[in-house]
Specification:
By secondary structure, this protein is an alpha/beta fold. Helix content is 24%, strand content 23%. The chain is built from six helices and twelve strands. The strands form three sheets. It has a seven-stranded parallel sheet. The longest helix is centred in the last third of the chain and has 14 residues. The chain is globular and about 55 Å long.
């Protein structure tokens, strides 16, 4: 698994951003998150070793996890990224976005029905943004679509938006002041996915987690592990 952050920085745009890990991490390091800047890794996918091999191996490349790939301030740089993505057909580039309403303004001229090696994950956190973003997402020409409901801050209904979706990921919020994640919300989304035959993954619990009416506080290092212990991931045809 490779990470590629061609630029860094972001600004909060919705309720799910309240305790964003990017802003928290930058704050600890004294970095201004609101400043969107290119990184030294801008050309990382096409850089080569002395023997001519790519430094980034074939496989999944997680794109823009310290920013939003569709953020406005990067509009002048994104075309170079699309060119590198076209060049690396042996890699699958995956990015998350809360700015899916900008998608058609951010794609290259040859996008057509989508690039085979690009996976787009639309992020939602509550019903309001589920309805707004997924109504747009459903109509976009993208070959590989996923939904990430993380941090999930209230119960949501998304069964009407699951046609053409390959995976739904659910997770809670990680912060001392995090909003609680109710396990019943997770199970409800799982059932919606099963009914529509869509892959489902419980990625992480929330720092504050409710199960069977009881409130639990979980350490950050255990959030993913505890979710895996639930053993509720669903894979179609398994």
């Amino acid at each position: 698994m490779a990470m590629w952050d061609p630029w860094r920085g972001c600004h909060k745009c919705s309720e799910g951003c309240l305790y964003c890990y990017i802003h928290k991490g930058d704050g600890k390091r004294g970095i201004n998150t609101a400043e969107i800047v290119k990184t030294k890794d801008f050309t990382k996918p096409v850089e080569k070793k002395k023997n001519g091999e790519y430094k980034v191996k074939s496989g999944i490349v997680y794109l823009g996890f310290s920013t939003d790939f569709l953020i406005e301030e990067a509009d002048d740089w994104r075309s170079d990224c699309w060119q590198m993505i076209r060049q690396r057909q042996d890699c699958t580039f995956l990015f998350l976005t809360k700015r899916i309403d900008r998608f058609m303004d951010c794609i290259p001229d040859d996008w057509g029905s989508g690039y085979e090696n690009v996976v787009v994950c639309c992020t939602v956190e509550n019903q309001k943004n589920t309805d707004y973003r997924l109504n747009i997402f459903n109509e976009l020409p993208i070959k590989h679509k996923c939904i990430t409901a993380q941090p999930l801050i209230e119960p949501i209904r998304l069964e009407n938006y699951l046609d053409g979706i390959e995976l739904v990921v659910v997770g809670g919020e990680s912060d001392r002041n995090a909003r609680s994640l109710d396990y019943d919300w997770v199970l409800d989304i799982r059932e919606q996915c099963i009914q529509k035959k869509v892959n489902f993954e419980f990625r992480q619990c929330g720092t504050h987690f409710i199960k069977d009416g009881k409130n639990y506080t979980i350490q950050t290092k255990d959030l993913t592990w505890q979710a895996k212990l639930a053993n509720i991931d669903y894979k179609v045809n398994e």
